[in-house]
Amino acid sequence: MLDEIDKLGMDFRGDPSSALLEVLDPEQNNTFADHYLEVDFDLSKVMFIATANYQDPIPPALKDRMEILNFSGYIEDEKVQIAKKHLVPKQMDENALAKTDVKIDDSGIKELISSYTREAGVRNLEREIANVFRKVARDKIEKKSKKININKKKVNDYLGAPRFFSDLAEGQTKPGVVTGLAWTAAGGDILFVESSKMNGKGNLTLTGQLGRCNERICFSCAHFRSFKFGEFWNR
After folding, report:
1. With contact defined as beta carbons under 8 Å apart, do 154 and 103 qualify?
2. When comparing pLDDT for 218 and 234, which is higher?
3. Which domains does the chain have, with CATH numbers?
4. pLDDT digits over 194-221, tens only?
């Protein structure tokens, strides 16, 4: 199992992706040489399973040696059920809390999901549930609190201001601002794209991590404007 292969690092100590190229190549891995142990291994009969949160960081040469299987992330309702049936009981046991000590309702779980985590899985959700229950355990000792009901407001009290917000599309468009659609590992989202007027230099410059789709949109827009306005590139 090669877990989170998209987080491969590369520095002065070496490039692990180069070694993986040889490991995953069926033409070479029957005589794979471990240079640290100075031992040869036959890996031709080994089935490798790699996991990744994102495909883009994986080197293209390494990705070519893989068969990609895409799994969709959990939707909110699925996360709620996973939290209720598995994460909450687990964290109650780890923090020495009984059912008579604390109860977290659906509004509290949904607040944790939407305002304090932004992920396809539930790893960070479990961490935030653990944070809440640790503070509940502290209140039980310091304040001699009886059964504590965790709702949306109580989650905000324990964890502070929400870290994530769900934007709403404007009912009326504003000059220089358009609403775009985005896809992330956490699901669909909207984003606001703002533009500003600058003096042109006769060329097109792309900065940041636009991605191929956004690059094509920029080129198409610039191409259209250059036909409609002859002096577009000089504006």
Report:
1. no
2. 218
3. 5-63 (no CATH), 76-159 (1.10.8.60), 177-234 (no CATH)
4. 877 777 676 767 777 667 777 787 778 7
Q: Find tokens 């939407």 and name the residue.
A: 114
Would you say 29 and 79 are in contact if contact means Cβ atoms under 8 Å apart?
no
Contact predicate 62/17, CB 8 Å = yes
pLDDT at 50: 92
